[in-house]
Amino acid sequence: MPLANEKVLELLEMELQTLKSEGFCNLPVSRNSILSLKNLSSRLDKSDDNALASMKQSPIGKKESRAGLTVKAMALPINPKVILPQGSKFERYEWLKNKVLNCEECKKHVRPGKKIVFGVGNIDADILFCGEAPGADEEIMGEPFVGRAGQLLTKIILAMGLSRSDVYIANIMNWRPEMPTAVGNRPPTQEEMEFCLPYLLAQIEIVQPEVIVALGATAVSGLLGHDPTRRMHDVRGKWATFANTPLMVTFHPSYLLRNNINAAKRAVWEDMLEVMKKLHMPISEKQQNYFL
Hints:
Elements: H1 3-21, H2 31-41, H3 46-57, E1 64-66, E2 69-71, H4 89-101, H5 104-109, E3 120-121, E4 127-131, H6 136-141, H7 148-159, E5 168-171, H8 190-207, E6 211-215, H9 217-224, H10 232-235, E7 239-242, E8 245-250, H11 253-258, H12 262-278, H13 285-288
Parallel strand pairs: 4-5, 4-6, 6-8
Antiparallel strand pairs: 1-2, 3-5, 7-8
Helix pairs in contact: 4-8
């Protein structure tokens, strides 16, 4: 099978995994697209099918190569233990930031020339927004939510009458999950999120927010644990608890970018209204009727 076709299938599979993690249950597909996929898949010979099956069944932690595409080993050591030192919030934040940026395991997974990503914002914030992992823009800047999804998150924050400097923004993961190709993103594994979770918990301990907002299905799994029966459309807009803090579940901003319909935008905004009510923030008539 030509390498180009192999890459197409690889990217398609990972894109569908990402969409699923963001809450998509159905996708409109044209007849021409279906025919194109059928024609592409028909070119797979038996050896290619066996290679694909072997790749999918390979346990995490092994290094596999397929048509020149290599997936790096994903085995992780025991989760790091984080004991924050005594001191002011700022001193503890700087200590933790330095610890994460110098985490040897994190460094192993960062692409050459890219950065570990650590939380940013107001360490006295009432709201902590939490996503699952950095993307391409984030690993360049070393800051969470700076790409298109981050721009939309900023718009949401502004609509709440706040600024990015008023809130704290973090990801569960501190590095962009490795890909077998140079482009695209994939959701982090549960193991990857569990490794980085102590670093997030330490940030929460420092900031002590009144509310945490979980952005997207993958972040929810990372915070509340994997549950194969959990459906994003069922838990979105509902309150849960994480680290003894009220947790609001909502869609990831990238979901709104991909699913550009008013119903989805209004759903996220209604979740933000609930957050504002929880914090006893004033809500104007304009905000009450607002659409993202």
